[in-house]
Write a structure and sequence with these properties.
It is a single chain. The chain is of the alpha/beta class. It has 2 domains: 2-153 and 379-392; 157-376, Glycogen Phosphorylase B (Rossmann fold), CATH 3.40.50. Helix content is 42%, strand content 18%. Bound molecules: 2'-deoxy-thymidine-beta-L-rhamnose. 2'-deoxy-thymidine-beta-L-rhamnose is lined by residues 10-15, 17, 47, 113, 209, 235, 269-270, 272, 275, 288-293, 308.
Length: 394
């Protein structure tokens, strides 16, 4: 099958992050010819090495990438068998006209944003007739239930994750390559008694990807005053103001700053596949938006989600729906503390005390996160569901 996937980068990296991941998977696992139209190739180039931000057309990872510039007229462009309009991005009128003439007509989907809310199930695959033309597109809702469109998950993802996690040398090399040195090993060997540190004083490694977040300096403060060393790895461009507020200065890429018991390490913005490795290697992940939020769940580690803030607090029911669904799979003693932490990180409640309450439970949470990941993987993945549904419509 030939696919056309259209993506407009509204802001941030999630729109193109999702479209790129879907495109790569359809090409690699199903052998489909995928043409990805994106209006901002530069943001794709930041998350995948070897992509030329200025090229009008190029091929990478088996995907035909096209710059969807205003000047692209779409005359003579033949639509594929399947057309994906990501996140309601409005595909070009001329392209839609050509879709009408094509036989069979392409299967046309609007790929929607992910939500854990219940209404997703009844809206998934609902038809949306074109206002002028005899063409129908269908809403495609990713989600956490079998009745939804599922979540993006590559066929070999868990194998890759587990192979990485089984290889201690690979993990150590990964940290080293990203400027995270083993401070506690040094500290133990230098200590006069020469004794290894007690277990509860072990270092905690955290990755942090978040929106501008007033809770961040307070959490940094709590960590810096805690008993155990926290290493917080923050990608380039993330939480600049918050780090400045806390330290009184920024941290340059490739550098780290130790403040009492908190070490902040600034890494470059990683390629998408390396970002997965960060999520796997860390003990705890802070993620945001849509794609990193899903990847943290496949990483099977405890995590906190910074939801994309929407006008009129429209994101609040979405956050509550996920917290309820996720919490239901964790033990009763844990779920209230996890909910408190999610809420505090999203602006409601005190982050320092929320962290203090959950920290002793991190082992239980790690076990719960692993169960959650396994349970979710029992659902079919989004690319497979989508491909199957498209085939039925052709
Ligand atoms: O960048 P985001 O905030 O994107 C958001 C969401 O999609 C949101 O729902 C949408 O409305 C808004 O954009 C417009 O967060 P998200 O979804 O996690 O996307 C980040 C992408 O960047 C994801 O594919 C992972 C990738 N990434 C890297 O490749 N390297 C990195 O170092 C980091 C931190 C992320």
């Amino acid at each position: 099958m030939r696919w056309d996937i259209f993506c407009k980068v509204v802001d941030n990296f999630g729109d193109i992050g999702v479209c790129w991941r879907l495109s790569r998977q359809l090409a690699a696992e199903r052998g489909f010819a995928v043409r990805l139209w994106v209006d901002n190739v530069a943001s794709l180039a930041r998350m995948w090495p070897g992509i030329d931000p200025d090229a009008a057309a190029q091929s990478c990872a088996g995907v035909d990438i096209r710059h969807w510039a205003d000047s692209v007229g779409f005359e003579g462009v033949l639509p594929g068998d399947v057309v994906i309009e990501a996140f309601g991005c409005d595909i070009p009128a001329l392209f839609v006209d050509t879709m009408l003439k094509r036989r069979p007509q392409p299967a046309w989907f609007n790929l929607e944003y992910l939500s854990a809310e219940n209404w997703i199930d009844s809206h998934h695959l609902l038809p949306s007739p074109h206002p002028r033309l005899p063409l129908v597109k269908h809403f495609y809702y990713p989600g956490f239930t079998r009745r939804s469109g599922g979540l993006l998950r590559e066929a070999r993802l868990f194998d890759a994750r587990d192979a990485f996690l089984d290889d201690r040398d690979a993990i150590a090399a990964w940290w080293q390559a990203h400027g995270v040195t083993d401070m506690l090993a040094n500290a133990a060997s230098e200590s006069p008694a020469g004794k290894p540190r007690r277990r509860q004083h072990r270092e905690l490694r955290v990755s942090m990807f978040a929106y501008a977040n007033p809770a961040a300096p307070a959490l940094f403060d709590a960590w810096s005053q805690g008993k155990r060393l926290v290493t917080c790895v923050v990608p380039e461009g993330v939480l600049n103001d918050e780090i400045n507020t806390f330290l009184g200065a920024g941290v340059a890429v490739g550098r780290s700053v130790l403040h009492r018991n908190l070490r902040i390490v600034r890494v470059r913005f990683l390629p998408q596949s390396e970002y997965d490795q960060l999520l796997w290697a860390a003990d705890f992940n802070f993620v945001r938006g849509e794609d990193s939020f899903v990847r943290a769940q496949w990483a099977a580690r405890p995590f906190v989600w910074n939801i994309y803030p929407q006008a009129g607090n429209a994101h609040e029911p979405k956050l509550a729906a996920f917290v309820a669904r996720y919490g239901a799979s964790l033990g009763p003693g844990l779920r209230q503390h996890v909910a408190r932490l999610f809420n505090a990180w999203n602006g409601s409640g005190d982050i320092g005390s929320a962290w203090a309450a959950v920290e002793p439970l991190l082992r239980d949470w790690a076990a719960g996160a692993s169960d959650w990941s396994t349970k979710l993987a029992g659902q079919r993945d989004l690319a497979s569901e989508l491909a199957e549904d498209a085939e039925k419509r052709l």
